[in-house]
Design a protein that fits this description.
Strand content: 35-45%
Strand order of the largest sheet: 1-3-6-5
Distance between the termini: 91 Å
Structural class: alpha+beta
Number of strands: 8
Radius of gyration: 29 Å
Order of helices and strands: HHEEEEEEEE
Helix content: 10-25%
């Protein structure tokens, strides 16, 4: 048993010594240049800056559709791509731009709300994009009066 362990240890030791060539000689200069270029490109990210992140529709009558537009600018160094925009409720539908937004360019995200609910409502829209943060949160709110009821709620 001791001989088997000693023999196996000797084989492993010889294998390690034989593989211990100069590792830096295996690195190709072309690969280093490509990796450096890739790493620099990875640092370029879009930045999504909204003019406003919340919209108040004020007092509305139940069932009255509402619509707003959230305008934004790509202040980053790479094209901005919105991959998904979802809302916290099926009564709110975000419609993001389909095409990439170039650096320095502006875009619009349209949001439609069907007027459902009653009293004070707040809905959130999550915008997923290729930014460093990965997502942005927007809000819409309104005071919804029941259809046919006398106006209540905050007065603007």
């Amino acid at each position: 048993m001791k001989r088997a362990i000693l023999g196996l240890s000797l084989v492993v030791l010889l294998g390690l010594v034989a593989c211990k060539e100069n590792a830096s000689s295996k690195v190709k200069d072309d690969n280093v240049a490509v990796a450096a270029e890739r790493d620099e490109a990875a640092k370029l990210l879009p930045v999504m800056v909204f003019e406003k992140v919340e919209h108040d529709f004020g007092t509305i009558t139940q069932g009255t559709p509402q619509e707003t537009v959230f305008k934004f600018t790509n202040t980053g160094d790479a094209p901005l791509v919105i991959t998904k925009a979802t809302s916290s409720c099926g009564c709110t539908v975000p419609n993001p731009p389909k095409d990439p937004i170039a650096p320095g360019e502006q875009g619009e995200l349209k949001v439609k709300y069907n007027g459902a609910g009653q009293n004070q409502i707040t809905k959130t829209i999550t915008v997923v994009a290729n930014t460093a943060k990965g997502s942005e949160m927007l809000k819409i709110k309104a005071f919804v009066n029941k259809k046919g009821a006398a106006p209540l709620g905050p007065v603007k």
